[in-house]
Design goal:
By secondary structure, the chain is an alpha/beta fold. About 25% of the residues lie in helices and about 35% in strands. The strands form two sheets. Strands 2-1-3-4-13-12-11-8-9 form a nine-stranded mixed β-sheet. A hairpin with a 2-residue loop joins strand 12 and strand 13.
Amino acid sequence: MTVIAIVDYDIGNIRSIQNAFISQGAKVIVTKDKDKLFSADGVVLPGVGSFKHGMERLQESNLNEILEDYIKTQKPLLGICLGMQLLFTKSYEFGETKGLNFIPGEVKKLPLNCDYEFKLPHVNWSPINTAGITWKDSILKGIDAGSDVYFVHSYAVYPTSSENVLSETDYSKNKFCSAVQFKNVYGCQFHPEKSGVVGLKIVNNFIEICRGKYE
């Protein structure tokens, strides 16, 4: 059975993430212990709230360094929502804060086009679209472009390289990166655990990657 470790750093309710992975046949452990994280087949970094607070919580348990060592093992890591943002170099939320820097890029507030009636946070079902990179053998394998997933966020990631943008989503007539991939590191700005059948397919895809099925 594939073992998925969810990083425990007291950021948000992770019960729905646990249930999503269990429903797809994975064994789930919630931990901050280095040995348990390293022994898992894959690691999920969840999170809601501010970037600064998230980094502070990781650093308090030395999880920033543990995760840095973990990705060197070439095992898969999936960041969800704030967890995806923390993978990047830095954020401008409540001032400038350094991130994990696993993926080069920045986190910035979603721009709003004043000609349209959009508000922040972006809380809605919105479609994910291709951004020039194939979804084959990725967390989006078998997902149709234009599929709706569930978002709750005011900030978005802006990768340095477009080659890391797995999907894009439009909000207020502006495109933002909604899923990312860099080597063995993946991220979803949306919540797959709250995105119905499409989200569960993404969860299953990550489990399959952890099994090495797509390698």
